[in-house]
Design goal:
By secondary structure, the chain is of the alpha+beta class. The protein has helices at about 30, 60-75; strands at about 10, 20, 35-45, 50-60, 75-80, 80, 85-90, 90-100. It is about 15% helix and about 40% strand. A hairpin with a 5-residue loop joins strand 6 and strand 7 (about 85-90).
């Protein structure tokens, strides 16, 4: 059985994945423009803790959105677990990248 077939929604696992939020350096253009705001992303975490399928739910601007996607794509997480303590792919994790107009 492949992992996608065994995927579980974020709210349905016994132990949710734990991910350390990446540091997101704002692109130079965003710093120059003093851009302020938040990019909201949704992604999946595989049973070995890899972040995959990062997509933007609410974006600010293409360069900033890509920066957030790139940052989350490099994160390693502790995988989610079922009641029997087996690791499982968890879908639809939701996180933010916040930009404050300065770097």
């Amino acid at each position: 059985m492949d992992e996608a077939a065994e995927a579980v929604a974020y709210g349905a696992v016994a132990e949710r994945p734990k991910c350390k939020k990446p540091s997101t350096r704002a692109p130079e253009s965003a710093v120059d423009d003093e851009l302020v705001g938040t990019v909201e992303v949704l992604f999946d975490v595989t049973s070995d803790g890899q972040v995959v399928n990062v997509r933007v739910l609410k974006g600010l601007r293409d360069d900033v959105d890509r920066n957030c996607i790139r940052a989350w794509s490099s994160v390693q997480c502790r995988p989610g677990r079922l009641l029997d303590n087996s690791a499982v792919m968890v879908t639809d994790m939701r996180y933010l990248c916040t930009y404050k107009g300065i770097d």
